[in-house]
């Protein structure tokens, strides 16, 4: 796996406490983006994050005796109560999380940060916390965008962030079976680097890859940019080791089994509410010998959608496949500007503030990528090209695919640059069956534009399809708009409208971001009242004291 | 889907009450099999099943008031308490089930058989049963081989078989998404016939296909002969409708989701203990335009195993792939005798009674099958052939593949013919990762031969690999031996030894037969004590009165 993220290019990867990536990788908002936003009526209003020492934190409430007991388990050097550690473990990386942090609000900070060394120390911490009724927030990369790191805070109960960074080993590599044991705290790049020493790759590359961890991928059912080829993370998991308040749990004796329900699937997506995933046994593949990335233009989003359906239903999926709608194509997210070069897609800019693509007929940008053994990759690329060309797609210049790949981890850096200019940017996603996708797309788009437009925030709503399945696909929306006087409130209203639209159109409330606290209002619609009852019963069984992430996933 | 089962060729499909398939499809044991068994020291001892009117049944215990209440729900014509209905819903189709039935023992017969018309009637029956504490045994095809139809019978509680035969409709077909709603009571052939009217196919073809049902496939995590191409049944399920004692439950809003744990995976494999699956939304594909079946000979089982691993790890799986070990190859199960022709594999017959293949060097039989669009199928067949030929495989005559396909549903008929001769035949299966497969194979084989050999039953233990995954595969064992004085006890001992060997070698206790009552002793080892606790908690939530299949899956 060639690392292409900006953080990789700059040495230190320690992220800023108020945003994404290291400060050295931050760049000002490109002029062409600035100009485009101005033309759309989205005003810039430079706003810097407050200095670290001005962040407001609640007093740390961990009793001394509890702190000492924790130190006995993990060592005193691995229990932190200083402000920066607490701030760095406060909330996740949703835009509203960042807006609050940038404004100096760390009201949701844990009282302490604990870094266990291994599975047994996690078990011991959970036992202690159950006894002392300390709330435990499992912490991997801290990249949740759904409030997954901000559990309910029952009165008088201290909150500890359980940072799994030290569980970062590559365990047994079984080359014959194509599996590897990966520590839950391994971040994406480190996991790939360790596997690469064995000539292997996981191939799981979500947007959050630079910071998100193996345990987090599993706990949230993450899906990567290359999911069409490598599979979702849940499909890569063959075994799990979990520490729960009531003991250890290991699952996964075979690639598949009929020994009752697949309980791995109950832990995948459990979001730290049932236990702490400490190790994943994952399917791994040989490092790809050949990688091809291509850019296409298709006549319109509807045509492109039908083409992707043809590929997916015919078992002809590329490894990466991403179709931008007209607005995202014009907005340039589909093809980031090249360093020193002109912006790839500034468009003619006749946007109204609610639809950037109005009146444009430039088609839609499609990226296809292929990774694997050389002959297979080249043949697959040729087969897909045949379908695309027959369906009216036009091949873009040879740089279009590599351009996308180079910028594939760029979005959260761009968001920081937008927030620096007082411009709001956030994403949400869903998935549905092919037959429901057009109405799902239209419904969510209308809900977002309607809600944010009514607030006079000049929203630009962009979307792409990725994560192809035989029976459907995901829709990933990016929203850029003015912040107005209450960006958090405005976004909450827009997100509610979007969530209602998703449910009305028959989609899933989240394809790969998880439930957290933000999607809880729609969980009943998603899994039914009985589903919620079942999750509660499982929670009571595994976490009888209710110490793990209260209010996350299960109310 | 071309039907090739013997039952299909003979008109009526109503099976005999004591075995498999209609009487018209039964044939005497072929002379060559008879001769082979005699040479192996497995004595024939003709034994006919007792006449139906000599079967011993416990008195029906359903109170009149309960019977009337059930009749009010489903109509009086759909509540049966006569002997034949009770006998036909007594136990499943394991060999020990058949031995008991053939001997006239229907001690496990339900007190009544109830046939609801639809989901709402199932719900109403479960509500009534919960109130009256009537045990309910969901009944699809009645083909369980793991005691899945013989729940615990708490004293004084009547037992009702809930036969889903009337839930046999094909519902909405979504051609664009490639999904179809299938009634739980649809048998394999009928489901395929209904889908074929739309040019579609499910492609799920387990050994039990002629009688097993859609609901049963889901409830037991069935896997078909073509699973390497079409996927296991659990992979084909995109949605489920379930009637539970506490209400309706519908799941499946998208091909994939991150909205918490995948609760479909909790119902798949739930074996009627959590609720009654009344409808499955399944992935369907276009009817295959081209079908190719080929036979191969590979030098030995170990070489063949490595070749299959190469194919599976390289994403080069045929649709069907089945590698017989040396004994199964010689035993002829890999290639059934052609009608009117010589037996395909009578071998030189130097078997010792514990190893039919001793001293034979004829290699191992491998069947590959391909189904789909013509060019893709032909290219895949050529690619696989390249790998096989390079690995030392030799192509058999053109009839070898079609011979296997013609006989693909033949095994349970052959078992009836063996039982008619007083010869025991049974199967068991497991799965493991590629690295564990050789030890798993050796361990289970030694356990079966050791246990049955010690009882002087001259066991022949055959095995094949099928159901390929990137990380591993399943092992399917067929045992033929003398019955001796206590075949049920001897098999229980052998099965226990095999189960212990599976656990010791790190395999799963069942790859596609489910848990039932027979695999319960190993469930703790498989899913851990916490796994069992979680299943119990789910059971209490969905079936608080404990009416559904008590003792099945969850003790």
UniProtKB/TrEMBL annotation, chains A, B:
Enzyme class: transferase
Composition skew (Polar residues), residue ranges: 1-13
InterPro entries for the chain: Alkyl-DHAP_Synthase (IPR025650), FAD-bd_oxidored_4_C (IPR004113), FAD-bd_PCMH (IPR016166), FAD-bd_PCMH-like_sf (IPR036318), FAD-bd_PCMH_sub2 (IPR016169), FAD-linked_Oxase-like_C (IPR016164), Oxid_FAD_bind_N (IPR006094), Vanillyl_alc_oxidase_C-sub2 (IPR016171)
Record-linked SUPFAM superfamilies: FAD-binding/transporter-associated domain-like, FAD-linked oxidases, C-terminal domain
Region entry Disordered, spans: 1-23, 326-354
Chain positions recorded as FAD binding sites: 138-144, 220-223, 271-277
Cofactor field: FAD
Highest taxon, organism lineage: Bacteria
Active site, UniProt feature: 476 (proton donor/acceptor)
Keyword terms of this UniProt record: FAD, Flavoprotein, Transferase
Start and end residues of each FAD-binding PCMH-type domain: 106-287
Binding-site residues, substrate: 415
Protein name, UniProt field: Alkyl-dihydroxyacetonephosphate synthase
Similarity section: Belongs to the FAD-binding oxidoreductase/transferase type 4 family.
GO biological process terms held by the UniProt record: lipid biosynthetic process
Record GO terms (molecular function): alkylglycerone-phosphate synthase activity; FAD binding
Higher taxonomy: Bacteria, Bacillati, Actinomycetota, Actinomycetes, Frankiales
EC number(s) given by UniProt: 2.5.1.26
Residue(s) at site: Important for enzyme activity: 322
Compositional bias annotation for Low complexity: 331-354
């Amino acid at each position: 796996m060639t690392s292409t993220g900006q953080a990789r290019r700059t040495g230190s990867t320690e992220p800023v406490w108020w945003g994404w990536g290291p400060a050295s990788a931050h760049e000002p908002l490109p002029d062409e983006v600035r100009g485009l936003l101005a033309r759309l009526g989205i005003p810039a209003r430079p706003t810097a994050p407050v200095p670290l020492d001005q962040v407001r934190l609640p007093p740390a409430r961990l009793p001394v005796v509890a702190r000492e007991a924790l130190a006995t388990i993990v060592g005193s050097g691995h229990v932190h109560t200083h402000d920066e550690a607490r701030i760095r473990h406060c909330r996740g990386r949703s835009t509203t999380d960042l807006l609050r942090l940038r404004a100096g609000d760390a009201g949701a900070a844990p009282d302490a940060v604990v870094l266990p060394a291994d599975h047994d120390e996690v078990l011991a911490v959970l036992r202690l916390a159950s006894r002392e009724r300390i709330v435990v927030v499992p912490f991997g990369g801290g990249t949740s965008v759904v409030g997954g790191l901000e559990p309910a805070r029952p009165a008088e109960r201290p909150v500890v962030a359980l940072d799994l960074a030290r569980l970062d080993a590559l365990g047994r590599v079984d080359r014959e079976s194509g599996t590897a044991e990966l520590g839950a705290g391994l971040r994406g790049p480190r996991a790939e680097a360790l596997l690469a020493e064995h000539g292997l790759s996981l191939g799981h590359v979500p947007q959050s890859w630079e910071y998100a961890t193996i345990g987090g991928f599993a706990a949230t059912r993450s899906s990567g940019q290359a999911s069409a080829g490598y599979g979702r993370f849940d499909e890569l998991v063959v075994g799990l080791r979990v520490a729960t308040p009531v003991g250890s749990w290991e699952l996964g004796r075979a690639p598949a089994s009929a020994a009752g329900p697949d309980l791995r699937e109950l832990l995948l997506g459990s979001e730290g509410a049932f236990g702490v995933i400490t190790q994943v046994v994952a399917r791994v593949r040989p490092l790809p010998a050949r990688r091809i990335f291509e850019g296409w233009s298709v006549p319109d989003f509807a045509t492109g959608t039908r083409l992707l359906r043809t590929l997916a239903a015919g078992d002809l999926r590329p490894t990466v496949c991403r179709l931008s709608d007209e607005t995202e194509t014009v907005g340039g997210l589909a093809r980031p500007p090249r360093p020193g070069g002109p912006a790839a897609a500034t468009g003619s800019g006749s946007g109204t503030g609610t639809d950037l693509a109005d009146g444009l007929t430039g088609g839609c940008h499609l990226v296809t990528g292929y990774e694997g053994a050389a002959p297979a990759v080249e043949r697959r690329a040729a087969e897909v090209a045949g379908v695309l060309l027959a369906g009216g797609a036009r091949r873009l210049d040879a740089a279009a695919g590599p351009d996308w790949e180079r910028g594939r981890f760029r979005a959260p850096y761009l968001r920081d640059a937008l927030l620096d200019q007082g411009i709001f940017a956030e994403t949400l996603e869903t998935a549905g069956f092919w037959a429901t996708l057009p109405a799902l797309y239209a419904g969510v788009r209308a809900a977002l534009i309607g809600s944010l437009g009514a607030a006079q925030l000049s929203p630009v709503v962009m979307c792409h399809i990725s994560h192809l399945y035989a029976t459907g696909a995901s829709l990933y929306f990016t929203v850029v708009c003015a912040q107005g006087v209450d960006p958090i409130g405005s976004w909450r209203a827009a997100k509610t409208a979007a969530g209602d639209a998703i449910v009305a159109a028959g989609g899933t409330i989240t394809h790969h971001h998880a439930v957290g606290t933000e999607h809880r209002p729609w969980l009943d619609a998603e899994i039914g009242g009985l589903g919620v009852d079942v999750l509660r019963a499982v929670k009571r069984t595994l976490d009888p004291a209710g110490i793990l992430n209260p209010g996350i996933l299960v109310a």
